[in-house]
Amino acid sequence: MYGSPASSCTTLARKRMEKAKLTQSYYYTPGEIPPGVTLGEYLDRTVERFPDRRAFVFRDKTVTWKTLGQIVDRLVLALIDLGIGHGDKVAVLFPNRLDFIYSTLALAKLGAVNIPISERLREREIRYILKKTGAAAIIMVDEFWGFSFSNLMVEIKDDLPDLKHIIVSGEKIHPHEIALDTLFSKDWEKAYPKDYYHRVYAKENPVEPDDILEIVFTSGTTGEPKGVMHTHNTRCRSALGTISGIRLTHEDVWLIMVPLSHTTALVNAFYTSVISGSCGVLLETWNVEEAFREIEKNRVTVPIGVPTMPIMMLQHPDMDRFDLSSLRTMALAGAPLPVEVAHQIIKRMGCYMTSAYGMTETAISNITSLDDPVEIVCGTVGKPQPGMEHKVVDKTRRIIPVGQEGEACARGQNVCIGYFKDPKRTAAAIDDRGWIYSGDLAKMDKHGNLIIVGRIKDVIVRGGENISPTEIEDILYTYDRIEQVAVIGIPDDRLGEGTCACIISKKGKAFTYEEMKGFFKDRVARFKIPDRIEFMDEFPTTPSGKIRKVELREIMAKKLRSGGKT
Questions:
Q1: pTM (2 d.p.)
Q2: How far is the first Cα of the chain from the last one, in angstroms, to the nearest whole number?
Q3: Does domain 39-227 have CATH number 3.40.50.980?
Q4: 463-561: CATH homologous superfamily?
Q5: pLDDT tens-digit readout, 33-85
Q6: How far apart are CA 167 and CA 78, in angstroms?
């Protein structure tokens, strides 16, 4: 971990920058986090430092760092025996379970390339990812949520000539499958004695920090999914930035409420645990009561998730009967946190929160400080991590003045090295100076805090006037009859585009469009008041809990075409 002299210099430099008020939308946080250590090396260090401390918890099973190291080393030898090694692409498909942890760390030590796949994906997406990457193996759950991944692989394996091994947890039901349990249980030390991994394999196949650690595929809501390539350096340095931002120590306990197959949990909870020695408690899927039970039972200090999760916690009628006194902060990302919710978290849950921002290509690139007031935590996503730069640019990619809206861009140690076998989209997203263009509409305040306004493509142009959905959502979240809201653009013959507020109302608190319109009186310009409201029971979401506005727009467009009315 980076030393205290560098940290103190960073703090002084940051304070000097904060005193100077910005005029242009550019900010750099000093204090580059040093490169040069692989994820496997961090694991070995943590096993040595904290052998008997808890590493990960899943339901009633607790694994110490020493035990985790032994399991991972056993799986490393098993994969070597199968002919899997440095540079091979291997998919890992699990919900939040210990097998995901074991597989990911074993691949990291081998120098193989991990391809995490969400358990929510199905035939089209899984076939595409495995074929695109030429994956040599897949390590996966046999069945989940009533869906058989084992049977799916029977259907598609003949279309995947590079796929040599299908390794399954649970019950082996097809002849071609290899049972993961048998790989764990075999005494590989007899076949590969005297520390074969370090003595032979690592010398012949050294794993370097700039080697590709993983290829993470984006959700693919627009076109085919993109395979984002990250190295040990980009991921570990990003994790170190999170450790610094939330002051994580080996005494901390994460509650991982979002999928490990996605960057938020993968880097900012899983990898930070490996580096810092903190403990990770896994929720297989999001469930409010289970979250409360795990916080109480495991003395969780840092839950990580999206803002809808604490909102649901606060609304749960039995929240006050659980002991939440261990909480110190929540790490939230993916959407704005309403100020009213933040105050309720502080008052009723007894902890603070940080607001973070990033994308698959960068992991967390911005994060608020634990010293920031609530208004900064809710109104911004903070400043860049140490060693990262951020700027906001216009359509010509020139920096714009503070307070103006443009595209958010990042540069620095967290940025991916490009999209797998996709030079065209890589060149479109990352310029020759290393800046990655996010597609997010944003502005910067005079202190360097970034304010996300929305996706550029989500901006609604109503009769020539630009409307930010986030601005309207923030106002509607203060309406005490609304539980969740998403504002989208809808087709309008007269205006070109109209606005629709898709709403999940609080139980027993229905309201009319006119009542909602009255709530907006004198709050915003009249053209920003939604043209329509649509009450819904639930929203389509990504596996990490973000609302899929693309699907909402499709739902509403279809309803309007069929003459549907509110």
A1: 0.84
A2: 56
A3: yes
A4: ANL, C-terminal domain (3.30.300.30)
A5: 889 999 999 999 999 999 999 999 999 999 999 999 999 999 999 999 999 99
A6: 11
